[in-house]
Amino acid sequence: MSEHKIHVLDFEVANLIAAGEVVDRPASVIKELLENAIDSGANIITVEIKNGGVTYMRVTDNGCGIDFDDLPTAILRHATSKIRTSDDLDSIGTLGFRGEALAAIASVSKLRIISRPADSPMGGILVAEGGEIVEHAETGCSAGTNVIVEELFSNVPARRKFLKKDTTEAAAIGTVVERIALSRPDISFRFINNGEIKLRTEGNGDLSGAIYSVLGRDFRSRTIFVDYENAGLRVTGYIGMPDTARANRNGEIFFINGRYIRSGTAGAALEQAYRTYIPDDRFPSCVLSLYMAPNAVDVNVHPAKLEVKFSNEKLVFETFYYAVRPAIERNMQTNVLPVPETGADKDTDTGKAAADYMRRAQRTANAFVPIRSGDSAVRTEPIETAPMQSKIPTPRDAFVNIPAKRRDISVNIDNGAPPSIETVRAVAGIVRENVPDAQTMANKTPPAPVSDESDRVTLPVPDYTIIGEAWDTYVIVLCGEKLYLIDKHAAHERILFEQMRRRMRAETKESPSQMLLVPVTVRLTREELDAVVGYGDEIRAAGFDFTVDEDTASVSVSSLPEGFSSDDVSAIFETLGGELTPSAAEARDEIFERALYTCACKAAIKGGRVYGIEHIKWLCDELFRLPDIKYCPHGRPVAFELPHSRLDRYFGRTE
Fold it and tell me: Are 255 and 183 a contacting pair, CB within 8 Å?
């Protein structure tokens, strides 16, 4: 029985176990030290590592510093300057607050802390090994704090053997620095790896500039600004265009009150907002910050504070969704084929891809044929219309109205800087007054984005010439100074989908239904019929008119939206019946839209088939009337453009 006797662990053993919850690799050390540096009020922070951080890590800041007498206390467990009473846990506004970081780091490394408050003539140095203080003395140093961590896990070899290669550990540290740099564009960060500067941000408060420094010029140039408020919550930042989608979720970067987190709620809302714009196996990219009352989110549910728990998950989901979806819909841009800007670019990956494309195009030039109507080749003459005038709406046009009966609180987070603690606490009052309880939100339909009728005006068709088709799939169109390659199936699919969706949302009186001379009867299963009946109002609003025969479990369809064929009726209603399954996690309109784009795909003209000139001309007319349609509902591009100037540069016709 003696081996089962309960006893208290020694302090050293308990400290090592606790350290494992906070420090599992060099990247977690850097994360904790960076959070402390930010909380100190620093606006310049430097991270330096060697050998993947295993042998050497240093974080230097110009923050408030640590008093000489407080240095020994700083490495004790649960020692912190940020929490005093249990009431403070309801309004945590700092990144580090548990008081475990320095204690955990000190227990598994050789630690040096050199620090001086700006108003102190002398600084102090503290040296600890394995959690034991070996030196504490005064020293001259710059204002701020310098923390040096050496020989991580030297006293815990069992843990050190689980570390990966130096390059892998360095990459993990780089990721931590990048994410924290994106969370605070008002702070200048430097990351030095083995003497080489890997990252530098300006610290001027410009989130766009921070994204440029961290994620690169190409991604920054393909982003959309987002700024949206809802019931005391605010989402701001940048989202990637659909063509920046990735094969994994690594591009989904979220911050809550300045803290990087992993959030299933935010991720689900983001991915839902991108539906019909990216393929199902791709994931969107973003840098989005949510600012909310600290008492409405629990940041203390994960040992590394990477996950949070919201008091109202549904409200958070809606806020992210309605911040992103309207912004995507209003800011589509035509895809541009990657033709290199200059000859020097031919050595780049993009240049090689473009060169390969041009070589393939030259080899298959004979595949380009004129559009045929009947047995005769047809050359389409330019259409005489007024020039196209494309209105580019501002992101704020897409915002949902903020409730009018709340107190006006100015949340100053311009340029990506987070609000002050006082402001956040003031907003907390708004949340308590205005956020419905969980049961009310569960029964509430999410607010629809405010529609701007002026943005839905059909644009005049520009002058264009249909040059021909390639492989009976891609329509080649010359319009002004641009050459367009249009996937006729994807374009038709998107046009049909948008027509049905606008009708459903009562945004237009266009595209009247076409009556069938002979109604088409479709037999369904009982489950499919129930689904069609349950969504009857939405189906009719989209342009389908039908009656139901309960006895035979069938529908008799008498009219269809413009652009659909009677041959498509059976497949469409079978699709609607099969896909319209109610889900508590999704709004009705989202379920129905997903079914609509499957219907549009089935009804769209097919690539590889020959269609008459009137079909192709109608397709191009509709596409140019709706310049915001750049992707099919399944996320594939509808059209690529080749500007004249780019082709001239590619072929060396300009200097």
Answer: yes
In three-state secondary structure terms, 193 is: strand
Q: Which region, left, alpha or beta, applies to residue 257 given φ > 0 means left and ψ of -120 to 50 means alpha?
A: left
Whether 143 contacts 89, CB under 8 Å: no
pTM: 0.58
pLDDT, tens digit, for every residue of 265-282? 899 999 989 987 887 778
DSSP bridge partners of 225:
238
Average pLDDT over residues 527-549: 88
3-state secondary structure of 136: strand
Q: Kindly report the number of other CB atoms within 10 A of residue 399's CB atom.
A: 19
- Helices 488-504, 613-625: crossing angle, 10 deg rounding: 60
| Per-residue pLDDT reduced to its tens digit, 568-593 | 888 888 888 888 865 544 567 777 87
Cβ neighbors of 530 (< 8 A, separation 6 or more) are none
For residue 112, give the H/E element and its range.
Answer: strand 110-116
Instruction: Give me the percent of the chain exceeding a pLDDT of 90.
Output: 29
**Lookup: tokens for 12:** 């050293």
For the domain spanning 222-331+394-442, the CATH number is: 3.30.230.10
The two structure tokens encoding residue 446: 């999410």
Residue 149 pairs in a beta bridge with 57, 111
DSSP, res 641: E
Nearest to 80 by CA among 376, 300, 323: 300
CB atoms near residue 80 (< 10 Å)? 20
Are 487 and 636 within 8 A, CB to CB? yes
Residue 402 to residue 624: CA distance in whole angstroms: 34
pLDDT digits (tens, 9 = 90+) for 477-501: 998 898 989 998 888 888 888 778 7
What does pLDDT average to over the chain? 74
- Percent of the chain exceeding pLDDT 70 equals 68
Helix (H) or strand (E) holding 2: none
Half-sphere exposure of 93 (CA within 13 A, CB side): 19
User: Is 240 within 8 Å of 227 (Cβ atoms)?
Assistant: no
556-565 in b/e form (b: 16+ CB < 10 A) is: ebbbbbbbbe
| 466: CB partners within 8 A, 6+ apart | 371, 380, 475, 476, 477, 613, 616, 617, 620
- Please determine, for residue 211, whether its predicted confidence score (pLDDT) is greater than 80: yes
In 3-state terms the chain splits into helix, strand, coil percentages (rounded to 5) of: 40, 20, 40
Mention every residue, 6+ apart, whose C-beta is less than 8 A from residue 45.
34, 37, 38, 59, 60, 61, 187, 188, 189, 190
Which residues make beta-bridge pairs with 244?
none
pLDDT band at 79 (very low <50, low <70, confident <90, very high): low
**Is beta strand 188-193 parallel, antiparallel or unpaired with respect to 44-50?**
parallel
Q: DSSP code of 637?
A: B
CATH number listed for the domain at residues 335-383+464-645: 3.30.1540.20
What CATH number should be reported for the domain whose range is 11-202?
3.30.565.10
pLDDT of residue 188: 96
Instruction: Tell me the longest C-alpha to C-alpha distance in the chain.
Output: 99
Q: Where are the domains of the chain?
A: 11-202, 222-331+394-442, 335-383+464-645
Strand 252-256 to strand 286-291: parallel, antiparallel, or no bridges (unpaired)? Answer: parallel
- pLDDT above 50 for 427: no
